Amino acid sequence: MSTSKPQPLHPGPKRKVCPVCGEYSYSRGGVHPQCSVRQADEKRMQRLKREQASKAPAKPAVDVKPWQKICPKCKNLIHIRKQVCVCGHQNAAATASRRQAKS
Q: How much is the pTM?
């Protein structure tokens, strides 16, 4: 048994290929409406990407783990449960808990 299909006797008209996506186009102009929008917005999108890349925040030099925090005074990594840093800075939560204990 052969699985190939016979060639049509009267081939249909040649359809236009969209120059943007490379698929057959169903529109008269030969370009899909969504492809023409994408083509028109390409320059604007490239400009926006460049602006966003320049505004991107700098990544921290140190990878802070969930159990670590950065001391605001000396910028060292300390454990999240440490109340007092090596530099002597006291955590705001530590002073608040001491205030509650005194009252």
A: 0.39
